[in-house]
Amino acid sequence: MQMKLDEFTARFPDRGRPVPAELAGQWIAWNDDRSQVLAHGTDLSEVRRQAAEHGCACPVLQKVPRAPFVGGA
Amino acid sequence: MKFDYTGLISSAPDTGEGIVIFRPEVRIRLHGPNGSEDFLGLVDTGADNTILPESVAHALGIPLVPGKGPAARAFGGQEIAISYADVDLELIHADGPLRWRARVYFLADPADEEALILGHQGFLDYFTATFVGEECVLELVPNSYLPRITAPE
Fold first, then answer.
1. Helix (H) or strand (E) run with residue B139 in it
2. Which helix (H) or strand (E) holds B141?
3. What domain count does chain B have?
4. Is B51 inside a domain boundary?
5. Distance from C-alpha of B123 to C-alpha of B45, rounded to nearest angstrom
6. Cβ contacts (< 8 Å) between A20 and chain B: which residues?
7. CA nearest B111: which of B83, B150, B147, B74?
8. What's the predicted TM-score (pTM) here?
9. What range does the domain containing B48 cover?
10. How would you write the pLDDT of chain B (153 residues) with one tens digit per residue?
C-alpha cells in the first residue's frame, strides 16, 4: 500500500508519523510508544547507546530500508 | 493480534512525488546472553527463513555457527556468508507477549543493506496471517505449531 502524505493523515489520523525519507538506510531508535525518534545512525550499537542517553531503557529499533524495498530474502 | 503497518516517507518510483509506503512490520523482542532488545521486523511471505543482520547478534551476544550450505546472494551477485543460531523471539503486543525459540539465520550484510526479515521458518509457520491491505493492518493468530515457551531456558 502506498499513498500521498495528505491522504495518509486523512485516513489514519491516529497513527504515528511515518519515518522521514532522510533516515532511509539508517538504524533508528523509537521511544516505547513509537511517537518519537530518539536516535539514528548507521551503527546499531551507537544508536542504542544514544537512546539510553535519552533515558530510554527499552527503545524499539528499526532498520529503515532504502525504499522502495523489493522484498524476499 | 492486530498490528498497524509502519509507514515510511519515500519517493514514488514512477513520478518521484512524495508518498507513504506501508510495510507489515511487527515488534519482536530478541533475547541473547547480553540481554534483550526490541526491533521492528518485516513480515515477509516471500522469505523462506527468518533472517537478521549479524550486527543484531553481536549486540545481543548471540554466538553464531557458520552455515555449511551455500552463501546468500545479494543484488548484483555478491555472495554473503550465512550463519545461524537458535534464538528466543518474543512477539510484543497489547494482548500479551508470545515467546518461542527458533532457528534464525544471520547475514553479514553491508551496513546500508541490513534488514530484519521474519519469514516462514521461525515466524510465519507459527501463525495464521491476514494482510488487511485496505486498513494497512496485519492480523496474526498463533497456531498449534507455535513452540511457545513461558520462561527463559
1. strand B137-142
2. strand B137-142
3. 1
4. yes
5. 10
6. 9
7. B74
8. 0.91
9. 24-131
10. 999 999 999 888 888 888 999 999 999 999 999 999 999 999 999 999 999 999 999 999 999 999 888 777 666 667 778 999 999 999 999 888 899 999 999 998 766 678 899 999 999 999 999 999 999 999 999 999 999 888 655
Is residue B140 in some structural domain?
no
Query: In whole angstroms, what is the distance from residue B42 CA to residue B117 CA?
Result: 5
C-beta atoms of B9 and A59 within 8 A:
no
Length of chain A: 73
**A59/B contact by beta carbon, under 8 A:** yes
> What mean pLDDT, rounded, does chain A reach?
88
- H/E stretch holding A51: helix A44-53
User: Has residue B15 been placed in a domain?
Assistant: no
Instruction: Tell me the shortest Cα–Cα distance from A18 to chain B, in angstroms.
Output: 4
Residue A69: exposure state from Cβ atoms within 10 A (0-12, 13-18, ≥19): middle
In a domain, B84, yes or no: yes
DSSP string covering A5-20, please? HHHHHHH-TTSPPPBP
